[in-house]
TrEMBL record:
The chain crosses the membrane at residues 9-27, 39-59, 79-100, 106-132, 144-162, 182-202, 214-231, 272-296, 308-329, 335-355. Keywords: Germination, Membrane, Transmembrane, Transmembrane helix, Transport. The keyword Zinc-finger does not apply. The lineage of its organism: Bacteria, Bacillati, Bacillota, Clostridia, Peptostreptococcales. This is Spore germination protein.
């Protein structure tokens, strides 16, 4: 099966998995941890994410047509590779499972008040099964199409929010004495950037992917960082730092607080935002589910891709029903986020160092 993707498709895959549920509480987290200078913490988080994006892209570029499963065995052997794969599989599986459950809870509380959470989880998982069973090229096309739509509408919505905000709520923009606090806040604010680890399961092709892939991926991360800053600043401009910290769904709370008379029948922006947000979630679901299925299939090579996908989806549905409250889901999401630091940072750095020590980058030139 030909799984080669273009540089642009890979960049949109990055956008699809990173920009998801994390955009909803973004403004609250920024205001709570960085105040009006939280944009600077987001800037640092963007820079850190760009560095690790380069590292993971570099590994794929040096080891052409290989994923983390293959080049990890070349560098560290089968024992450590199997440990890494188990960590990645657990991470990807729990990530999309808990995101689906959390998204279902939010949708039930906002627009579908009488719909059971289990029914929404099942609906999402059926869509996930269909998309993942079709392979990465179909998923990439979905992310490319959805990504363009999401970007256009999100930028439009954020600019509309700014027109209703007050610049006084954004001041002071930066306090030099608080720079240590901004840097400390980065450790919390960086979690919405988790997702770059998906690059580890996408093989780079010698014909399709040139050195331009580094530029595409890093520029996409920078764009996401700018989008996050825009989201945080626009929400704070409307609600203020002291007001927004009380709303977990800070972006939706801000959107519901404003009306744009000039939009006539679309004066309520939440009617535009919610479908767009669900599209971002769908991209996150299918990409993280693909990561889980892909790496599981590497460990169980004699089992078909569709059977593994079916088992993963059924198991995900069962696990998604276990948490009883939103607080329990949020605690699990915190643990998953910390695991995300390992799969997107620590493991790629280990493999990057091993590549340099064994000089695979010079051998494959």
């Amino acid at each position: 099966m030909n799984n080669s993707l273009t540089d642009r498709q890979i960049a949109f895959i990055l956008f699809g998995i990173i920009v998801g549920y994390g955009i909803m509480p973004m403004a609250k987290n920024v205001a709570e941890n960085g105040g009006t200078g939280g944009w600077f913490a987001l800037l640092i988080a963007t820079l850190i994410t760009a560095i690790f994006t380069y590292i993971i892209t570099y590994l794929g570029y040096v080891h052409k047509n290989k994923t983390i499963y293959e080049y990890s065995q070349l560098l560290l052997g089968k024992f450590f590779t199997n440990i890494f794969m188990i960590i990645y599989i657990i991470y990807f599986f729990m990530f999309f499972t808990m995101i689906i459950r959390m998204a279902s809870e939010v949708i039930r509380l906002t627009i579908l008040l009488k719909t059971p959470v289990c029914a929404m989880c099942l609906l999402f998982l059926v869509a996930v099964y269909y998309a993942v069973s079709k392979g990465i090229r179909v998923i990439a096309r979905i992310c490319e199409i959805y990504g363009l739509i999401i970007i256009i509408f999100l930028l439009t919505i954020q600019l509309a929010i700014f027109t209703q905000g007050d610049i006084i709520n954004l001041k002071p923009f930066f306090v030099l004495e608080d720079i240590k606090s901004y840097i400390k806040a980065t450790s919390t604010i960086i979690f919405p950037f988790i997702g770059i680890e998906i690059l580890a399961v996408i093989p780079l092709d010698k014909k399709e992917n040139s050195k331009k892939i580094f530029g595409y991926n890093i520029l996409m991360v920078v764009f996401i960082g700018i989008l996050y800053i825009l989201v945080a600043e626009s929400c704070i401009s409307v609600m203020g730092v002291d007001g927004i910290i009380y709303y977990k769904d800070s972006l939706l709370a801000t959107i519901r607080r404003i009306e744009i008379p000039h939009l006539q029948f679309l004066r309520r922006l939440d009617g535009i935002f919610l479908p767009i947000w669900i599209m971002t979630l769908f991209c996150t679901f299918i990409l993280s589910a693909y990561g889980s299925v892909f790496l599981t299939s590497k460990l169980f090579k004699n089992t078909s891709h569709k059977k593994i996908t079916f088992v993963v989806v059924i198991t995900s549905f069962i696990i998604a029903q276990i948490p009883n409250t939103i607080n329990q889901i949020e605690k699990l999401m915190d643990y998953i986020s910390y695991l995300g630091i390992i799969v997107s940072g620590i493991i790629p750095v280990i493999l990057f160092v091993a590549t340099k020590v064994k000089r695979y980058d010079t051998k494959n030139k």
